[in-house]
Design goal:
3-stranded antiparallel sheet, Fumarase C, Chain B, domain 1, EC 2.3.1.6, 513 residues, Chloramphenicol Acetyltransferase, single chain, 3-stranded mixed sheet, 14 strands, choline O-acetyltransferase activity, alpha+beta
Length: 513
């Protein structure tokens, strides 16, 4: 039986508005150990004035409570606008995360085309059972329309415009006479597109490069682009499409995990697949039997004026600089995995977060504000919230580890437990953690982006930084991280007797997650 994510949404609880004092106390706790004492004193005075009886804090809290009654999710619009739509940075690296899946060994180009036609299937006890894919609705049914100061999230709805019935590579119609093509027909069309794309004399300028620019620059270029009716029609086809599929050319680079992550994030630049990126949107359609005659896919046409060529040149240059600036290191730590951590009766996520804090402190001698994403999808219209991983408890632990000669192992272990507990408590306030392996760039010029995927006997880390920053180095961070993880394991083995009996047989007898 299929369950529609949309129909179940109204059965979910609304995201609660935290009490004002709880919010203020949490903010001060998160800042107390990260800024100089004098600066914290001033911050505390501002917060106390804000939260005073009859003050602006109480007024705004009342407004939020009223909003929470009127809206399915009181924070959704604020989060969307502040975190995304008002951000003027280019989307590649700065905003758009990517998933990197296991390598696939393709015997031919035909295999790569078949890979572009997946269906979700269940695992475990229901292995092989097709799953409802309605949860991907928002991923596909919208696109981000650039604006000079603020982007707009445009969702395709059948009440406003006809249902989208094509996929963008070229224009591939997947619905003919109200019937959907089956997988065999789609494969036939993909083969046609691959052959058409190989015709050198028909290749067109990489208009997609314009979308890799800053949002204000793309908005300006788009306004010039759509002055021509041919360009306007092609852009309209893209913005109303069922979904987007990119069939990249071979990159010519060794497909290490780090290089695959880079190719996913930015396409490798203008000399590889950086111009082969667009966004699109889908629809709910009726399945149909195969049709004997299929119309040929249509190539999108563009007219490239001197002004557009100027925009393309500028966009290509900026993308190349971004590609060269990004420092990515994907590393598989094989010393142990989540089974060892779980035997310590610790949360793998909390443990890894503390390890990341330990690593940053070992590299830089202090901690900084850290943003960990956590899912709040158990609530209506839930997206993600923040977990503040740079806790006072984590700082106490990493300081103790750095001053190893002055503090006993038992004291360090107690501090580790306290740090783990604090991290887990933060996690409880935002109920679900997404422990997927993804990649993204740093959110500040002198910071790191760190993703991880704890597996049974290893942990995959993906660390990014910018080469232009003299303060950061992805390679140094990863090397230091391995050492910190080993130190934490040694501490656990010394102090946590529950871990010792099973340690030698970890890889043979690890329990299922």
């Amino acid at each position: 039986m299929e369950f529609s994510g949309w129909s179940l949404r109204k059965g979910l609880p609304k995201l609660p508005v935290p009490p004002l004092q709880q919010t203020l106390d949490m903010y001060l706790k998160c800042m107390s150990h990260l800024i100089p004492e004098e600066q914290f004193k001033k911050t505390k005075e501002i917060v106390e004035k804000f939260g005073a009886p009859g003050g602006i804090g109480e007024f705004l809290q009342k407004k939020l409570l009223e909003r929470s009654v009127q809206k399915a999710n009181w924070v959704y619009d604020y989060w969307l606008e502040d975190m995304y739509l008002s951000n003027r940075l280019a989307l590649p690296v700065n905003s758009s995360p990517v998933m990197v899946f296991p390598k696939q060994n393709f015997r031919s180009q035909s295999d790569t085309l078949r890979r572009a036609l997946p269906v979700d299937y269940a695992r475990g006890q229901l292995a092989g059972t097709p799953l409802c894919m309605d949860q991907y609705n928002k991923v596909f049914t919208s696109y981000r329309l650039p604006g000079p100061k603020l982007d707009t999230l445009v969702a395709q709805k059948s009440t406003v415009m006809p249902e989208p019935e094509h996929i963008i590579f070229f224009v591939l119609d997947v619905v003919i006479n109200f019937r959907r093509l089956n997988e065999k027909d789609l494969y036939t069309q993909l083969e046609r597109i691959r052959k058409m794309a190989d015709i050198e004399e028909e290749r067109l300028p990489p208009i997609g490069l314009l979308t890799s620019d800053g949002r204000t620059q793309w908005a300006e270029a788009r306004s010039v682009l759509i002055k021509d009716s041919t360009n306007r029609d092609s852009l309209d086809m893209i913005e109303r499409c069922l979904c987007l599929v990119c069939l990249d050319e071979p990159s010519g680079t060794e497909l290490t995990d780090s290089n695959r992550a880079l190719l996913m994030l930015h396409g490798g630049g203008t000399d590889k697949n950086g111009g082969n990126r667009w966004r699109g949107s889908p629809s709910k359609l009726v399945r149909a039997a195969s049709m004997s005659e299929l119309p040929a896919p249509r190539r999108l046409r563009w007219k490239c004026s001197p002004d557009i060529q100027t925009f393309l040149t500028a966009s290509a240059d900026k993308l190349q600089r971004l590609v060269k600036n990004l420092d990515m290191n994907v590393n598989k730590f094989t010393g142990y995995g989540k089974e060892f951590i779980k035997r310590q009766k610790m949360s793998p996520d909390a443990y890894v977060q503390v390890a990341l804090q330990f690593t940053f402190y070992r590299c830089h001698g202090h901690l900084v504000p850290t943003y960990e994403s956590a899912s709040i999808r158990r609530f209506q219209e839930g997206r993600v919230d923040n977990i503040r991983s740079s806790t006072p408890e984590a700082l106490a632990f990493v300081k103790a580890m750095a001053n190893s000669s002055k503090i006993t192992d038992a004291e360090k272990m107690e501090l580790l437990w306290t740090a783990i507990k604090a991290q887990t408590n933060y996690t409880i306030l935002v109920p679900t953690i997404e422990e997927m392996f993804c990649c993204y760039g740093p959110v500040v010029p002198n910071g790191y982006g760190a993703c991880y995927n704890p597996q049974k006997d290893h942990i995959i880390f993906c660390v990014s930084s910018f080469r232009e920053s003299a303060e950061t180095s992805s390679d140094l961070f990863v090397k230091t991280l391995e050492g910190c993880l080993k130190e934490m394991q040694d501490l656990c083995l010394k102090c946590n007797t529950e871990a010792k009996p099973a340690d030698s047989t970890e890889k043979k007898n690890g329990s299922k997650s």
